[in-house]
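User: Let's play a game. I give you a shape written as tokens, and you guess the letters that built it. Ready? Here's round one.
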């Protein structure tokens, strides 16, 4: 029987698989701003304060521009979310169209009120509370989703060490969207128009918390064109967000609210909802 040299056996036993390659800057940013992942991380670190402002405009290319341009196609929204260590949260959102809302999750109650309206309270049932949170912190992910096929992220050297923030500068991709194309499975019928987006300009900067990959500072501005249902569109966005008080937000208090009382619909209401008129 032929014997295998001991040296070869020892060398084979000591061989270890190569460590996985570090994620690219593009992939790291895509994960960091994804709403579901961001909410999960905020809960994992024991809460934080999220603040954001977002300007969005999408209008027909034939629409007037400048001072005479209509404002109905543009909206600026300001959002604040306080999430405490127990998973309770308070969301306050306003926009320049005189709209907004406040949402508070405390214990097993979910209180919701529109701007200038009273707060009503009802039992919290998932996935509604989590959906509110994901919508509230979703501006960076939505902005990134628009420009991702056209963006390059360059690492800016900062302080050394694993806990130091990592900062990336965003700039246009010279390949003009030929890479980073979103898989078809990620595109729904309502988002189909995003496949036609062509970014005209973009710039931004993102800082990720070294210990937990939270986007503690996010800024992105872009102009783009697109087509929806055969109509040519042009748009622009400007999103700025920050995350602070990581793991140190104050406990959320229950708001002043009224219990939501449900009542059965009358026969006339049922017929109206079903489109049967008054017969």
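Assistant: Ready! My guess for every position:
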């Amino acid at each position: 029987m032929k014997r295998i040299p001991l040296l070869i056996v020892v060398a084979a036993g000591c061989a270890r698989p190569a460590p996985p390659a570090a994620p690219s800057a593009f992939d790291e940013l895509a994960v960091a701003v994804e709403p579901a992942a961001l909410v999960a991380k905020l809960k994992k670190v024991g809460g934080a304060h999220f603040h954001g402002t977002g300007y969005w405009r999408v209008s027909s290319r034939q629409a007037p521009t400048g001072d005479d341009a209509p404002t109905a196609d543009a909206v600026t929204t300001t959002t604040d979310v306080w999430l405490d260590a127990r998973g309770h949260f308070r969301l306050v959102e306003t926009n320049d169209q005189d709209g907004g809302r406040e949402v508070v999750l405390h214990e097993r109650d979910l209180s919701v009120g529109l701007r200038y309206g009273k707060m009503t309270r009802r039992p919290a049932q998932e996935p509604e509370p989590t959906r509110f949170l994901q919508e509230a912190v979703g501006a960076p992910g939505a902005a990134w989703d628009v420009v991702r096929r056209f963006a390059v992220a360059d690492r800016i050297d900062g302080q050394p060490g694993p806990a130091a923030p990592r900062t990336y500068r965003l700039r246009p991709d010279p390949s003009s969207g030929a890479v980073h194309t979103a898989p078809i499975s990620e595109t729904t019928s309502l988002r189909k128009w995003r496949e036609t987006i062509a970014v005209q300009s973009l710039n931004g900067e993102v800082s990720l918390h070294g210990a937990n990959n939270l986007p503690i500072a996010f800024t992105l501005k872009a102009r783009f064109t697109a087509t929806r249902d055969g109509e040519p569109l042009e748009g622009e966005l400007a999103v700025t967000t920050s995350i602070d008080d990581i793991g140190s937000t104050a406990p959320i208090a229950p708001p002043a609210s009224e219990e939501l009382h449900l009542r059965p619909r009358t026969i006339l209401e049922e017929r109206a909802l079903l489109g049967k008129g008054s017969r």
